[in-house]
Amino acid sequence: MKTFVINNSEELKNYFDKENYFYNVDGNLEVNCSLNFKYSLIVKGYLFIKAGEHIKAGGYIEAGWSIKAGEYIEAGGYIEAGESIEVGWYIFSFIFKISAKNIFTKFLPFYREFYADMLPMKKWRKEILDENNCWNDLKKLPNKEEIIEICTWEGWHWIIRGQLECFFGLKESFMSPIEEK
């Protein structure tokens, strides 16, 4: 499968399908910049965004094999990869639909207030809201038993639960649940 390389977001326009209003890459795509775009993106092979860069799409993001970004991935639609999705920070779909066999993340989506107000984390509300505390400091607040209690709380969406498990070091990756057809 051929690998295409783009070095700036202007070059992404070369792959725009005007008839169907999405970006279409018939092969692998290596990107040496952050991508912010309005429409959807389909990559037949793997999609790799260099370290320190991100993908932000108004539509969906789909790769036949894998998606990798140094920072974060956000999409207005679904995010799907045949094998894996790996991000240096977090992943978020505004329709809460992410699909891959393995999803690797290191940080949490959303803002401090979101987590501070969640039932299993209210105990550390003051520390979470204190912006002098780095997120890595916040990982150290609960003990192992409390971390398990936080992550097994039934109120989390599976996407948030998986990212919490990675954030707290319980897992290296998580997978999307099997959808019934």
Overall mean confidence score, pLDDT: 90
Our estimate of the beta-strand percent is 25-35%
**Main beta-sheet strand count, sense and barrel state:** 6 strands, parallel
Distance between the termini: 30 Å
The amount of helix comes to 10-25%
Shape: elongated
- H-E string: EEEEEEEEEEEEEEEEHHHHH
The structural domain count equals 2
Strand order of the largest sheet: 1-4-7-10-13-16
Helices and strands in order:
Blueprint: E1 3-6, E2 16-17, E3 22-25, E4 28-31, E5 35-37, E6 40-43, E7 47-49, E8 55-57, E9 61-63, E10 66-69, E11 73-75, E12 79-81, E13 84-87, E14 91-93, E15 98-99, E16 102-104, H1 112-116, H2 125-129, H3 135-139, H4 144-152, H5 158-167
Parallel strand pairs: 1-4, 3-6, 4-7, 5-8, 6-9, 7-10, 8-11, 9-12, 10-13, 11-14, 12-15, 13-16
Antiparallel strand pairs: 2-3
Helix pairs in contact: 4-5
Molecular structure report:
This protein has 181 residues and is α/β, with parallel strands linked by helices. The chain has 2 domains: 3-107; 110-171, no CATH class. The chain is built from 5 helices and 16 strands. The chain has helices spanning 112-116, 125-129, 135-139, 144-152, 158-167; strands at residues 3-6, 16-17, 22-25, 28-31, 35-37, 40-43, 47-49, 55-57, 61-63, 66-69, 73-75, 79-81, 84-87, 91-93, 98-99, 102-104. The strands form 3 sheets. A 6-stranded parallel β-sheet has the order 1-4-7-10-13-16. A 6-stranded mixed β-sheet has the order 2-3-6-9-12-15, with no helix packed on it. Strands 5-8-11-14 form a 4-stranded parallel β-sheet, with no helix packed on it. 31% of the residues are buried. The model has no long low-confidence stretch (mean pLDDT 90).
